[in-house]
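Q: Sequence in, structure out?
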Amino acid sequence: MYAVRALSEASPCSLTTEYFHAFADKKDMETELQGSSGGSDQIPLLPARMVNEFAYCPRLAYFEWVDGEFADNADTTEGRFHHRRVDQAPVRKSRRTEDEEPEQATIHQRSVWLSSEHLGVTAKIDLVEGEGAAVVPVDYKRGKRPHTEQGAWEPERVQLCVQGLLLRAQGFSCEHGVLYFVGSRERVEVPFDEALIARTHEFLNGMRAMTRATVAPPPLVDSPKCPRCSLVGLCLPDEVGWLRQPHTGDAPVLRRLIPTNDDALPLYVQTPGAKVGKDGECLKIKDHDEVIGEARLVETSQVVLYGAVQVSTQVVQELCKRNIPLVYCSSGGWFYGMTTGLLHKHVDLRRRQYAVANDPGRCLSLARRFVQAKIANCRTLLRRNHRAAPETVIQDMKRDQVQAGVVESLESLLGVEGTAARRYFSEFAGMLKEAEPGARFDFEGRNRRPPRDPVNAMLSLLYSMLAREWTVTLQSVGLDPYLGFYHQPRYGRPALALDMMEEFRPLIADSSVLTAINNGEIRVNDWFERMGSVTLTPEGRRRLIETYERRMSQEITHPVFGYQISYRRVLEVQARLLGRYLLGEIPEFPAFTTR
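A: Exactly. Output:
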């Protein structure tokens, strides 16, 4: 994991000395850090790089260090490329004669790992150079030297000072450090004076206090730091800041900080007997010895397997390492479960989730918002797509929406939702265009387990896909997808995923079914009937999945924040806003209703 302003390439020289042999082995250093003693009140050694981030933005440091979240952007990728040289294992050799005393040896050591229990910090220094006991840490930065009074920004000088303090703790004389800017090939000397040392200790104490907190520091307000930050999509600074203030009227005009499209997309594999293997940075799907598909790992958000599809251990390990979920479904689309990497570090978020789930009043408040938004979006879909929606049904659903906001129990809310759903599905056929003869798109109401007509078969498949999508999203942001507020816990049911998908059923799943039918993408030979149930063929399922993925990638205007955003990104934003609400950062959870 690298910082937002990632480190850069090392100098071309590589002379080493035995002074640093005990600190150069990364594995030994990691073992030392993991084995450090301490009671329940102690915190792990703080990395110097994280102190840099804390000086830059405390909220950014919290997400990276406490929550363990990170996201790449162009700056971090470029920084990692420039930094590849100093990340190599150091070459252990020294330039001195047999008669030369060790303390007079020339020191030129890359990638030096140091730690201090007394200071409570650890660091990997890009380069240490000097002679004898007098040494200088050199830190490499990818960009050009900033034209500031002190030659560099404060976060970089503080990080360098931490490295200097660590060298002093090891018994070396270290009076200054050097920042080397690769972009302009300039060296900036940073003296370790009393003012910088005091400032460094101030940041260290502040970061320790932040580490013990259960809620992230507030976001920066209209800061120029945010647009270039790789974690802006996780932090949501403008969105959280706006939601914390009372507002009326039209949607705000917020900065365009969040990328609307993500290059990473799901990979679906549904060929019976297919095998998924790894070849370098690519996933390859084979049917016997024939390669029938491939996808780059960097462009894959999740891998979804339908039916009897095999996957190699190398693929599972690589997906876990990259935090890419591996999802298992039946050949008909039933969601079995998934394999992921380690559980999200944000324990306090889940504790808040469990506390709210045990509070009937707050559960009811959230459930009302879910159901009201769902009814509102169903009404909107009818008004947009129905040939002649009866005004009585539209008005009745409006009253259902109002009633859902004032009910006094979850049981009553279930009744209101069920009534509104029956009104909605009674008019669903009016949104379908005339189909080819024999197509049987004669929808007469919702049925399932098993679905008895093609429309219900498609709805069931896409509802299952949407539930899977929400399960993956909620788990990725640190929430427990199996403990909900409206849907009550039941063995094997992702209750929170079902809660969150309520308002998106009409917008994503129902809309995708309408598009597939009305545009002729699903035809009469794309399903078959067996003992009263209807099942899509593999080809029909493939085309329906394509329609669903197009809908997920479609850009819309966010009804609360006013910027253009894809539905795929909307799901993550909603999940993160739910987390902000549970942690008390925002007073209310904003429901998603399209206009």
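Residues 238 and 254 are 7 Å apart (CA to CA).
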